[in-house]
Amino acid sequence: MTSTVATPHPRGLATLFFTEMWERFSYYGMRAILVLAMVAAVDAEHPGLGLSREMASAAYGLYTTAVYLASLPGGWIADRLIGMRNAVFVGGCIIATGHFTMAFPSTPTFFIGLTLIALGTGLLKPNISAMVGELYPEGGARRDAGFSIFYMGINVGAFAGKLLCGYLGEHYGWHIGFGAAGIFMIAGLVQYRLNSRHLGTIGLLPASTGDAQRDAHARRRGAFAVAAAIALIALVMIAALGGYLPIDPIRVSKQTAVVIVATAALYFGYVLIFGGLDRSERQRVGVIVVLFIGAAVFFSGFEQAGSSLNLFALDHTDRDIGGWQLPASWLQAVNPLFIIILSPFFAALWVNLARRNLTPSVPLKFALGLIQMSLGFLVMFFAARLAASGDKVAPAWLMLTYLFHTTGELCLSPVGLAAVTKLAPRRYVGQMMGTWFMAASLGHIIAGLLAGHLASTDDIAGLPDRYWLVFVTTSGAGLLMLLIARPLQRLMGNIQ
Predict the structure, then answer these.
(1) pLDDT for res 420
(2) CA gyration radius, the chain
(3) Which of 290, 313, 447, 482 is 20 to 30 A off residue 475, Cα-Cα?
């Protein structure tokens, strides 16, 4: 009789787990107070930028969008120029520099720091996830379990970052909170360097064609392109901060949304018409288009947490606990806490349904995610009615909203990218993965524009109607996805 022992996870997983945990600590810790710092008056106890809520929300949406879009060149730089290992370290250094730049209380350093964090995150985020996959060349359930552990690190970091940076920012000054985010990013980089030996040779070198001369030539061209892009970004920043290039975040957000939609439409149209696809492949790409739209709608609502819902917590939520004021940013920590608590239950649910051959299809999971997210805005409709009457509402309203948003996220987000990789024609997999990031980017841009209306203080009486409109729109998208889930599944064939 033989006994089997579960194969342990690679030691490199711990290295990447803690690197990502501290990076997410810094990223979400800073995001928790970002809009609050932008709308705070310049003569307040903790001086802010004094931006209007519409401007601040649009700037927030642009920033989060830039993070997603930067992931595309970030992966390319690692593949072609410096390797994933170096990309993660360099990206982390840029992120830490950005946080420390924001720790200086001035408008120029604020926006320079934001730019650096977006660029650094785009370099680090896709490559550290790719290295987790490289730890499990055999694939299978063990690889899935490794990603589940890694995903838990993301949420532990997000939860702790929102609590600590939120508290420091709201009680001691926004620049203190931003500086704390940088300190913990440094902690993540130190442990990454000290424990990188556990990664073996993973990510050490960029991809190679096998032709040294051709590779060297390609790297020289790539390095020149990166240098030119950095110079262009620097020039734009100098011109904007010097007043030579006025930038209206709201107008730029609208233009960016148009560009993303046009780019996606042209790309999908080209692939469908000129991509040399057979009938089955065209059908599956059509499903990806529908999922693209669904993901954009979902993230446009889900990403209200850091903007309009954060400002609702600031303005309309009773945060007094025995004479102590609960930081408004702390309520955002509910989402990662719920994910930590609920993820094992959802994982068990999908496994049990699979055993009974009742696994929901990808379109059905998208529909469930959209509907649950919309229910969060139905909760906010009732909360806004109380706020419009002049009363401050209990934190439980926002917590219930975040609960619906979290369960919606657990239905939709984990399956989205995996579904795209399965549905995409083999020769277009990498490009189709990019469309998922574009969908998230579009959702973030729309979220920023939408938040400006939801967080406006000009018409408090109209706030319930605005939340009701969001509920009707997002629930309508969810119900439509529910109605077409079965036809979409037929187009997907045997892909689950």
Answers:
(1) 85
(2) 23
(3) 313
Burial code (b: 16+ CB inside 10 Å, e: under 16) for 458-467 equals eeeeebbebb
Give the global pTM. 0.91
Residue 6 has a pLDDT of 57
pLDDT (mean) for 100-126? 94
Q: What end-to-end distance do the CA atoms of the chain give, in Å?
A: 37
Euclidean distance between CA atoms 400 and 373, whole angstroms: 11
Amino acid at 14: A
Tell me the per-residue pLDDT of 271-280, one tens digit each, with 9 for 90 and over. Answer: 999 988 999 9
Contacts of 333 (CB under 8 A, 6+ apart): 32, 158, 159, 162, 163, 166
Helix (H) or strand (E) holding 289: helix 279-302
109 token code pair: 């350093």
Judge whether 309 and 380 are in contact, CB under 8 Å.
Answer: yes
Token pair 């194969």 in the structure block, residue: 7
Q: What is the mean pLDDT of the chain?
A: 91
91-105, 136-150, 167-181, 228-242: the lowest-pLDDT one: 136-150
pLDDT tens, position by position, 308-328: 999 999 999 999 998 899 999
**Phi, psi (degrees; rounded to nearest 5) at 317:** -110, 130
Mean pLDDT of 69-88: 90
pLDDT band at 358 (very low <50, low <70, confident <90, very high): confident
Of 456, 465, 446, 441, nearest to 54 (Cα)? Answer: 456
Distance CA 365, CA 436 (A): 16
DSSP-H helix ranges across 317-361: 334-355
Specify the pLDDT at position 5: 47
Please, what CATH class does the domain formed by 249-496 belong to? mainly alpha
Q: Which H or E run contains 158?
A: helix 140-172
Task: Work out the number of other CB atoms within 10 angstroms of the CB of residue 483.
Answer: 11
DSSP assignment letter at 461: G
Identify residue 470 by its one-letter amino acid code: V
- CA 50/CA 289 separation, integer angstroms: 40
Torsion of CA 110, 114, 117, 118, to 10 degrees: -170
The DSSP string of 50-106 is ---HHHHHHHHHHHHHHHHHHHHHHHHHIIIIIHHHHHHHHHHHHHHHHHHHHTS-S
Q: How far apart are CA 345 and CA 226, in angstroms?
A: 44
Q: What pLDDT score was predicted for residue 53?
A: 92
CATH architecture of the domain covering 11-207: Up-down Bundle (1.20)
Topology alike, domains 11-207 and 249-496: yes
Q: Where are the domains of the chain?
A: 11-207, 249-496
Q: Report the candidate in 119, 128, 126, 117 with the shortest Cα–Cα distance to residue 75.
A: 126
Among the ranges given (63-72, 162-171, 179-188), the one the predictor scored with the smallest mean pLDDT: 63-72
